[in-house]
Every structure is written in C-alpha cells, then in structure tokens.
Write a structure and sequence with these properties.
The complex is a heterodimer of chains A (282) and B (179). Chain A is an alpha+beta fold and 282 residues long. Chain A folds into 2 domains: 39-112; 116-269, Rod shape-determining protein MreC, domain 1 (Thrombin, subunit H). Chain A has 2 helices and 12 strands; from the N terminus they run H-H-E-E-E-E-E-E-E-E-E-E-E-E. Chain A has helices spanning 8-27, 39-112, and strands at residues 116-125, 133-136, 149-152, 155-163, 168-172, 179-184, 190-195, 201-207, 217-220, 232-240, 247-254, 263-269. In chain A, the strands form 2 sheets. Chain A has a 6-stranded antiparallel barrel with strand order 1-2-5-4-3-12. In chain B, 74% of the residues lie in helices and 0% in strands. Chain B contains 6 helices and no strands. The longest helix of chain B is centred in the first third of the chain and has 29 residues, at 5-33. With 179 residues, chain B is an all-alpha fold. The chains are: A alpha+beta (282), B mainly alpha (179).
C-alpha cells in the first residue's frame, strides 16, 4: 500500500473525530465571543428576522390602523350624530327664542292697547293661489264674528269673512275681494282699499284733486269701529292720474306681508282707539 | 229599485279624499313647506272623474267637488262651480277625441289641465267678478302644475282601488273609457 494512498472515508472519520471535540471545546467559550464562521449566518438570520419583524410590524400596523379606522369611523359617526342633535337643539332653541321675542312683542302690544284683542295662530291658507286668505285657530266659540278686523303690531292685514266654531278665515287686504275704508294720513284724503294680486292693493275712489304723494302713509279711518283709527295699512308706491278721469289710481304696498305671519290679532272691539299722531289720544 | 251601495261608497270615498287632500294642501303643506307652491289635489280628483265617468256622473261629482272646495277658499261657490264645470266639459270634450287610458294618459291629462286651470280661472274671474284677478304668477303656476302631475300617479292607483270597490255592485259597467 502506497503511503500516499489513503481511504477517504477514514480521513473524514479522523477529521470528524478531531473537529467534534474542538467544537465542543469551542462551545464552552464565553457567550459574548462570536465565531467567525457563524457571522454570515447570524447576519443573514438577523436580516431575515428583521425583514419578518418589519413585515409583521407593517402587518400589525396596517391591521391596527384598519381596526383604528373602524373605531375612528364609528367615533366619527357618533360625533356626527351628536353634532346633528346639537344643531337640532340649537335650531329649536333659536326658533323658541325668536317665537318668545315675537310673542313678547305681541303681548306688550296687547297690554299697551286699549283695544280688546284676541290672539290667534295662522293654520292654513287659500286653496287657490289666486286668492289671499288665511285661516286662524279661533272661531265663533272664542267670540269671533264676521267682519271683525285682523291686524298685527305693524299694521292691518284684513278682516274675518267666514267663521266656524273653532276656526275663522281672514280675507287679506291683497285679495281681490277685500275692501277696507282708508285715509291718507298726511292729507286726510279718503278712499277704499281694494286688493290686487302679488301683495299689493289699490286705494280707489280718491278724487282727482286729492293730495296724495308717493311714500304717503295710508291708515285706517276707524269707521264702524272695525279697526282702530289711524292704524297703518300701507304706503303709496305709485299714482296714476288719467288725463280725463275724475279719480286717480293709487297703488299701495301693505305695511305687513300677511302671508308670512304666524300669529295675528282679531279686533274684538277697537274701543275707538286712535293712533293718529296729532290730536290722537295714543 | 236596488240601491247601488258600493257605487255610493265609491263616490263618498272620492269626495272624502278630495276634502282630506284639500285640507292637507291648504294647511299641512303650508305649515311644513311654507309658501312653496302646493300641488292642486282637488284638480286630480276632477280630472279623474272627467276622464273615467260618463258626463252625467262627472257633472254630479263636479257639483259635489265644488261644495267640498268652497270651505277652503275665498272664492264664492258660483265661481268655483263655473270654473270646475268648465274644466270638466273641456276634459270630456278632449277625451272624446283623444283617449287611450292608463296612468300615463291620466298623468298627461292632469299636467295639461293643471297648466290650463289658472288661465281658465283667471278668465272666469274676469267674466264673473267685479274686481277680477290679475294674471297668475308664472313660477307658482308651472311648479304647481308639475307637482300636481307628479302626485297624480299615486292618486290614480288610489282611485282605481275606489273604483274596484264601487264596481262590486251587480251590473255596474266598466268605467274606464269614453262613452
């Protein structure tokens, strides 16, 4: 057998026998020491772990973010609901405040007035667009009679034309069937208010020579005690004197837009109260 | 003579509906939506009876309908009656020439009538009233007409159901179609 010829299996066996104890010895070394040949594996392993850790962190982050989003969405919905509720409460409070102010003014007017007034709430309007009437929640059971005047703080709105036990209908000044006796406050010229559509009225049967100017205030005459005397009806917006006519056509804008009212007064008895500024008692 | 109870019930139901809807139009609509032009519910009833009934029955219904409308308006009964009868006759004359029935036809008739009605009422006012009305507001007129046409479909179904109840009398003929 040649000296240099050897069995490879035996070589491996010897090497293994030599290396294994070396390894065992090396395993007893201090833990902080790191073997040179393990470094690449450690590095690779660390890299992979870091990658997985990063990935899992990303997954956890995404999951958490998604779960948080569900929470945020839910919270957002709750906050929106709260906001809507608060807005509704605010709206109701504002409405109550305005109603309170309005009713306070009405009450003040009623208390300051000599007239016997009945407050009523508007509950309906006319079936046809062409007619201007409103229905109130007071009727004959409350003492209302036909042709009683209807007004509010700012001026006259019309008069009662139909009475039911628990409701009444008011013909507004702007209705084509409405007629109210009136005078021009400045010149005391007398005429009849007749309704026009589109919120206006005519002051008719004024003599051609009567002194009327645009902007003049037209007030109630106090005739028949239906309305107090000198209470505002509206102001003159235009005057038409035809060349040969005996009268003049005067258009009036009512002091009150009655179709927007929520509460009105019915004049149960005007007690001859006079709102004329000069010489009037009030 | 046998009294046609179901036929009478159908008429009563229709008139009651007209009254309830007129009240809703003048009060509920006004209190909820303010001055936004309401649909003319009464007109839907009028068109329905004019389209589906013989002339004599449509005339009787128009009288009853006018009576139900008067409490809700300042217009006198005479003016309302003349106006409604004019509408009924015009619809009847139209239906004698053009008729194919069904909800689409009804809706078109309601749309046409609701657009024509304010003009006819204005004409009636000029004829009858001492202090006639002025031309109706175009915005209210068109919007109200469109809404009336829109509401006519569910009401058509309701009235068909009333007709179904009314047709339970023996010998009652089918009502849909010109005669």
């Amino acid at each position: 057998m040649n000296f240099f010829t050897f069995d490879l299996r035996k070589v491996f066996l010897v090497v293994a026998l030599v290396i294994l104890p070396l390894m065992a010895v090396n395993m007893q070394r201090k833990s902080e020491e790191e073997l040179w040949f393990t470094k690449p594996f450690t590095f690779m392993g660390a890299m992979m772990q870091q990658s997985f850790a990063g990935f899992s962190s990303g997954v956890r982050g995404t999951t958490a973010m998604y779960l948080d989003l569900i929470g945020v969405k839910k919270q957002n919905q709750e906050l929106k609901n709260q906001l809507a509720e608060l807005n509704a409460q605010l709206g109701a409070m504002t409405e109550l405040k305005l109603e309170n102010e309005r009713l306070g003014q009405i009450l003040g007017f009623k208390q300051a007035s000599k007239m016997n007034l009945l407050a009523a709430r508007v509950i309906a309007r006319d079936l046809f667009h062409d007619h201007n009437t409103i229905t109130i929640d007071r009727g004959s059971n409350h003492g209302i009679k036909k042709n009683m005047g209807a007004l509010t703080i700012g001026g006259v709105i019309g008069y009662v034309f139909r009475v039911e036990p628990e409701s009444s209908q008011i013909l507004l000044l702007t209705d084509s069937y409405a007629v109210v006796d009136a005078i021009v406050q400045r010149s005391r010229a007398r005429g009849l208010i007749e309704g026009l559509r589109k919120g206006n009225a005519h002051l008719r049967y004024l003599k051609r020579s009567d002194d009327v100017k645009v902007g003049d205030l037209v007030v109630t005459s106090g005739l028949m005690n239906m309305f107090p005397k000198g209470f505002p009806i509206g102001s003159v917006t235009s005057i038409d004197k035809s060349r040969y006519g005996m009268t003049q056509e005067v258009e009036i804008k009512p002091a009150i837009e009655a179709l927007n009212l929520e509460e009105v007064f019915i004049v149960m008895n005007a007690n001859h109260q006079d709102f004329t500024p000069s010489g009037g008692e009030d | 003579m046998k009294i046609p109870w179901y036929w009478l019930l159908g008429i009563v139901l229709m008139i009651l509906t007209a009254m309830v809807l007129s009240a809703a139009q003048t009060s509920l609509w006004f209190l909820v939506l303010g001055h936004f032009p309401p649909p003319m519910f009464w007109l839907i009833v009028l068109v329905y009876v004019s389209v589906t009934r013989p002339l004599w029955e449509a005339t009787v219904m128009t009288y009853l309908l006018s009576l139900t409308m008067v409490p809700f308006t300042a217009a006198p009964f005479e003016a309302v009656l003349v106006f409604c009868l004019l509408l009924t006759v015009l619809i009847f004359l139209f239906r004698e020439r053009v008729f194919w029935g069904g909800p689409t036809y009804f809706m078109m008739m309601v749309a046409g009538t609701s657009l024509a009605a304010p003009l006819i009422y204005w004409a009636v006012s000029r004829w009858i009233d001492k202090s006639p009305l002025s031309i109706p507001d175009i915005f209210d007129w068109l919007l109200s007409g469109c809404l009336t046409a829109l509401f006519s479909l569910p009401m058509y179904r309701l009235y068909q159901w009333f007709d179904h109840i009314a047709s339970q009398d023996a010998g009652t003929e089918s009502r849909v179609g010109p005669r």
